UniProtKB/TrEMBL annotation:
PANTHER family attached to this UniProt entry: XANTHINE DEHYDROGENASE SUBUNIT C-RELATED
Taxonomic superkingdom: Bacteria
Provenance organism: Saccharopolyspora antimicrobica
Domain FAD-binding PCMH-type: 1-176
Keywords, sorted A to Z: FAD, Flavoprotein, Oxidoreductase
SUPFAM superfamilies listed in its UniProt record: CO dehydrogenase flavoprotein C-terminal domain-like, FAD-binding/transporter-associated domain-like
Tagged with keyword Mitochondrion: no
Gene Ontology molecular functions: FAD binding; oxidoreductase activity
Residue intervals passing through the bilayer: none
The name this protein goes by in its record: Carbon-monoxide dehydrogenase medium subunit
Length: 281
């Protein structure tokens, strides 16, 4: 299918992009286009104008600031996946990125575009929530910072206003161990379920565990029952199995991809695999 008619502009600056979005409530920002363009082809999105922000220099940062990894929203997923800085400071992000679609998609898709799209099965959304990340957004009223816990509000909906652009992602660097696993029908398919895990230890026991499930609800979500099993316990096989069983309190959707029972089984398997990565780190 072909998309409905639209205009296209490529602004030279972030300020111009914000102005263009504020001037037309039906305008949409275009970064990598790996989510927006298919939605347009299926007539699920009908923007009047695409504001191409994919080459704005203000969105290209990839650096460390003290104990924070800063990634510009326009950084390609493949660039972040292969960056030594990401591997050294935020290994969970690298693991999550490898599961996104195929190489060609990651070569065009952007870090910020995936977060702003807010797909409930998005690997980057789960990783951002597990890492307690923050995003910086820019609009006509200036810049503001949004914690990942407040960013994803519903399927494909965020707390950004229509004229705001997600410009930067800030990920804390604190030495926590991490793991990521997902279950899908084929490599590159959307996950039936997946888990991003971040675990901090003290005196050989779990001091703080953050488990975030993807593909099991309207948004990526903390698996609080499974976290409660882990906190204060040694991360051994018995605890991992108990946490996996506790993750079954999630309420996944029932759609043509899988029924809830199948997704819950996939979620339990993903929890076990992600936590095994943590224990072997």
């Amino acid at each position: 299918m072909k998309p409905p008619p639209f205009d296209y502009v490529r602004p030279d600056s972030l300020a111009e992009a914000v102005r263009l979005l504020a001037a037309d409530e039906d305008a949409k920002a275009l970064a990598g286009g790996q989510s927006l363009l298919p939605m347009m082809n299926f007539r699920l999105a009908r923007p009047s104008v695409l504001v191409d922000i994919g080459r704005l220099p203000e969105l290209s940062a990839l650096r460390r600031e003290d104990d924070v990894l800063v990634i510009g929203a326009g950084v390609r997923q493949r660039t972040a996946e292969t960056a030594q800085l990401v591997r050294e400071t935020c290994p969970l992000l690298g693991r999550a990125l490898r599961h996104i679609g195929h190489h060609q998609i990651r070569s065009r898709g952007t870090i910020g575009g995936s977060l702003a799209h807010a797909d409930p099965a998005a690997e980057l959304c789960a990783a951002a929530l597990a890492l307690d990340a923050e995003v910086v957004v820019t609009g006509s009223s200036g810049r503001r910072t949004i914690p990942a816990a407040e960013l994803f509000v519903a399927p494909y909906q965020t707390s950004l206003s229509e004229e705001e652009i997600l410009t930067e992602v800030r990920l804390p660097i604190d030495g926590a161990r991490s793991g990521f696993a997902e279950i899908s029908g084929r490599s590159g398919d959307f996950a039936l379920a997946g888990v991003a895990a971040v675990v901090r230890f003290e005196d050989g026991e779990v001091a703080d565990a953050r488990l975030v499930g993807l593909g099991v609800g309207g948004t990526v979500q903390r698996l609080t029952d499974a976290e409660a099993v882990l906190n204060g316990a040694a991360l051994d096989d018995r605890t991992i199995d108990s946490a996996a069983e506790a993750s079954g309190s999630a309420t996944p959707p029932d759609d043509f991809h899988a029924d809830p029972a199948t997704r819950l089984a996939a979620l339990r398997a993903a929890v076990q695999r992600a936590l095994k990565q943590v224990s072997n780190a």
